[in-house]
Design a protein that fits this description.
The protein is of the alpha+beta class. Helices cover about 25% and strands about 30% of the residues. A hairpin with a 4-residue loop joins strand 24 and strand 25 (about 475-480).
Amino acid sequence: MPSVRADRPGAAGLLGWLTDPEAPRLCLVTGGPGLLDWLARHGPRDAGRRRTVRALVPLTGRSALGAAWAVADHLGVVAASPADLVRALATSENGRAARTVLLLTALHTAAEPEAVAALLAELARLGRVRMVVEARPGTPEYELLARERVTVVAPDDAEGAEGDEGDEGAAPAAVDLSDPAAVCAADPVAVTTGYIRDPWDEHGGLRAAWFRAGQALCAAPRPADRALGLLALLGDGADPRLRPALAALAAGSPWRLRWSRVTGDLTPPWPGPVTALAAPDGMLLTADLGGTVRLLAAADARPLGQLDHPVTGRITALAPAPDGTVLLLDERGRLHTAPGREPRAPYLHRLTEAVTATLTRHPGTALATIAGSVVVGDRLGSVHAFGLTGLHQASLHSGRVTAVAAVDSETPFVCSGGSDGTVRRWTPGQDPDPEPLRRRSSPVVSLAAAQTPHGPVVAAAWGDGVVELHRLERRERGVFRAGPAVRAVAVTGDGALVVGLDEALVCVTLR
């Protein structure tokens, strides 16, 4: 970090605010253009995994929704709207917000400056994130923020005037919002604002798909990735010319869309919001918010019926067994059994009864089955494998175990995910792998695993909407992001990835 001499006007005041733990969480910078860019270029002194991060968010041309998506991305949450961002940060276990300083430049050049300011004021009241906002005194958006508890840094504009030209930001180029190629190639900020300003035209279905997938689309690095995201969340009522056009534009993406079912779809129908997924024997099991478990064909999501089971209320995990029995974990952490095609072997019946009794006393947080064993995670970070040869346990996570999955391969193993953001691998009866399979700064929300033609495959989803598919033997990793929050993932027998969302169910394969 350079010294605090007047390298930039206002530097001393701004650095003083940054280093004062008792200072308000919101700082208004009222002059000295370029000060926030300077601060972003010179990172903090502290180092290590939990160091403070300074995230630059240019506000030029952004709507309130576009600003919410950008902020959510930096803070490691998913938000469908500005209000959803506030709720997500208020309830998230993710600690990234507390370690991030948002540097929001040129509020007066936003497409919706007052709406953006209202969002930032709500975030300031949460007290979980520090923000520096460049705003002009006398504007309505400045007055709105000034009513909060703030620190004001006012550099001498005359001294900091260099680079002031173009302060208003370049006017965004017009985009043909009905042309999929133009939409995928354009600046996502301009596309978002364009759709906000044109609510009377659905543009053949592109507008609705953009708003569903928008947070991921704005962060996607290439037009092909944006085309895939739009294609995945395009409803079946869209202009029929859009689907082949988007498929051609998405040819450069590492993923290929196999099928998707979006809210409102009729042929086949969308199965509803997903809370849990499983993929046994060419089928998909999808649990919804009311506890209904639907059976779908894995090849195309055609409905095949419903599972008859004893659970009422939300189901958080589904664990099919080889004999057709399906174990279910309810939202209170208790185990239930839906009978399979054939009666269970007596020893498996006794095992299931024993685990059910245990979870009545000690609720589980995650569930899987493997090689005659039932695997359960708990809120203290341990994973328990109840088997015919006894109980094996391992303390794998710091905090709650949020997901477990298992692979019945030549060497069976369990993967677990936790609120600590790690995915770990463990073979019951042996010591767990010393290093995590994956570590990210967001809680794991779902895991799935399967033995496939590519060898064992593990899918992991995190709270920031990122899903990864790991082909373990090939040491390959594919990253997929649909946009909305991911509720559940599954891996089919041929290695396809199924992603369950509140408004869609998507199946993709790595090319």
